[in-house]
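User: Sequence for DUF2306 domain-containing protein below. Tokens please.
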Amino acid sequence: MNKVVKSLIYISSALIGIYAFFAYAFLELGNAVHPSMKVNFNAHALGIYAHIFPSIVALILGPFQFNEKFRLNHIQVHRKLGKVYLLCVFLGGFSGLYMAQFSFGGMVSHVGFSLLAILWITSGFYAYSSIVRKKIQAHKNWMAVNFSLTFAAVTLRIGLGIGFAIGLPFELFYPYLAWLCWVPNLLVAFLIIKKDNTSLQII
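Assistant: Structure tokens for DUF2306 domain-containing protein:
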């Protein structure tokens, strides 16, 4: 990716992470979301917090793990941050899978967010298992897939902004964001991997 795209990823990840932290840490939970979702969020506050805060850490740490200069010059820091990142992915993923069952928008949202959580957890597991087996390229590929799903936190909010900006009813467009926030990201990750002439190397 070129420098402009990389910079946008760093900036957007940091901004959304900071926004989410302050919104969920300092505002009443119901005020951090659309009015249509307040009752549901307040009814499952523990699940929301268990999902949001680990996910924020993963979102902010993720881009730094792809910085080649940082990785080569600070390999031990890279490894430690990688462990923290993946721990947050697993915590955020399992709590996200739980919360997907209560997501606003009915079955379309439930299935979309559930698949996102399952793929997030699964790709994190493969990223970890591949580096344990010293399969460096496979690890890089799986991390690209995994962070594309982490980045759904950003694309979800971009989608919300677009939906509100063009005047679509929240109840109409939100269920589809449960898919649109991660499927395009995942396709981009696969295109990047294909461009590098590599494979996921699951085994």
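The chain has one domain: 3-195.
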